[in-house]
Amino acid sequence: MTSTPSHPRIYLAVTALWFAAIAALAGTGRLATLRPPLPQAIIGALIVALIAAGAALPGLRVWLAGLNLRQIIALHVTRFVGVYFLVLLGRGTLPAAFALPAGWGDIAIAAAAVVLVLFVPDLIGHRAMVMTWNLLGLADILFAVFTATRLAFADPASMSAMLTLPLALVPFFLVPIIIGSHLLLFVRLRG
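User: That's the sequence. What structure does it adopt?
Assistant: Structure tokens below.
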């Protein structure tokens, strides 16, 4: 029986390049020149590409299968970025229709991730709890994406902060990874 080799260094290098490319595009102001539907199409393509890579690359599937649930859930601590959404709401940089639900939703999901990671010793034994958190987390991120898309189409300037640094890293880097991690958790928890 031949095992499929995993190449974590390659996957981490590709992820680092992806991060650097988004940071460079946002840093030069190129992302800020995009108007709907182009940013939304790019984000959608990134999400699809990430999911397709996970489905099509056996080595990536092996590597992802080797991640422990706690590691995957801990990634969601990054969703404390919701605090920054609320700060930008206070400054008038983000609209309330996005910042309030996305900010508070992300904070709640991040806080629940901390609880799961630190205080639930047997995540598989508490599958229903983890599945509920995962479902709520996916619903929250999808609601935020759809709300941002709706607002950007209605008034592109209202969401322009999401096309500049540091916030551009959220939709163009973090959101696809977060959505992918939710889908990965559903796959891992169903067995």
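The CA atoms of residues 138 and 179 lie 7 Å apart.
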